[in-house]
């Protein structure tokens, strides 16, 4: 029994350690909207987010602004999740300059001494821990 278990473990270790092909990629095979003729719609959506749902500090939580005094994000507050989604989109679509700009904006808005905030309030002019 011990010999059988040892043999199974050796096979598992050898199989797990197989060499990855040199041309293997960690990138997804399909980019956002590249199937089903969605490229045009993807670009229209991106333009709407940039022109109508964003400002100089990032993507707004909501199309309509509020006084931003609630315990939850509202109005033109900005969430770190939105910044992350934008950076992922720029990375997957190989827009290096746009990614870098979003990263700089994200660090400016969300970086705290103890970590990253999840929310930035434009009316309060600060990150919400």
Secondary structure topology:
Blueprint: H1 2-16, H2 39-52, E1 54-55, E2 58-59, E3 78-79, H3 80-92, H4 96-110, E4 111-112, E5 115-116, E6 119-121, E7 126-128
Helix pairs in contact: 3-4
Low-confidence stretches: none
Topology pattern, helix = H, strand = E: HHEEEHHEEEE
Cα(first) to Cα(last) distance is 56 Å
Overall geometry:
elongated
Beta-strand portion reads: 5-15%
Structural class: alpha+beta
> Number of helical runs?
4
Radius of gyration: 22 Å
Query: Numbering strands along the chain, what is their spatial order in the largest sheet?
Result: 3-6-7
Total strands: 7
Largest sheet at a glance? 3 strands, antiparallel
Q: For the residues shown, what is the average pLDDT? A: 79
Which percent bin holds the helix content? 40-55%
Note down, in words, how this protein is organized.
The chain is α+β, with helices and mostly antiparallel strands and 129 residues long. 44% of the residues lie in helices and 12% in strands. The chain is built from four helices and seven strands; from the N terminus they run ααβββααββββ. The protein has helices at residues 2-16, 39-52, 80-92, 96-110, and strands at residues 54-55, 58-59, 78-79, 111-112, 115-116, 119-121, 126-128. The strands form three sheets. A three-stranded antiparallel β-sheet has the order 3-6-7. The chain has a two-stranded antiparallel sheet with strand order 1-2. Helix 3 (80-92) runs antiparallel to helix 4. The model has no long low-confidence stretch (mean pLDDT 79).
């Amino acid at each position: 029994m011990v010999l059988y278990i040892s043999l199974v473990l050796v096979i598992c270790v050898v199989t797990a350690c197989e060499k990855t092909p040199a041309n293997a990629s960690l990138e997804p095979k399909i980019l956002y909207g590249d199937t089903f003729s969605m490229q045009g719609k993807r670009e229209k959506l991106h333009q709407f987010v940039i022109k109508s749902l964003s400002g100089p500090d990032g993507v707004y939580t909501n199309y309509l602004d509020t006084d931003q005094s609630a315990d939850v994000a509202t109005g033109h507050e900005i969430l770190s999740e939105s910044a992350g989604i934008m950076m992922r989109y720029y990375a997957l679509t190989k827009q290096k300059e746009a990614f870098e700009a979003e990263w700089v904006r994200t660090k400016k808005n969300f970086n705290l001494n103890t970590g990253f905030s999840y929310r930035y309030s434009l009316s309060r002019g600060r990150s919400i821990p």
